[in-house]
Amino acid sequence: MSTAQADPHVPQHAAIEVDGHDLPVFCPGPKSPLWSMHPRVYLDVTHGEPAHCPYCGATYRLKPGVVLHGH
Question: Residue 19: which residues within 8 A CB-CB, separation 6 or more?
Answer without folding.
Answer: 62, 63, 66
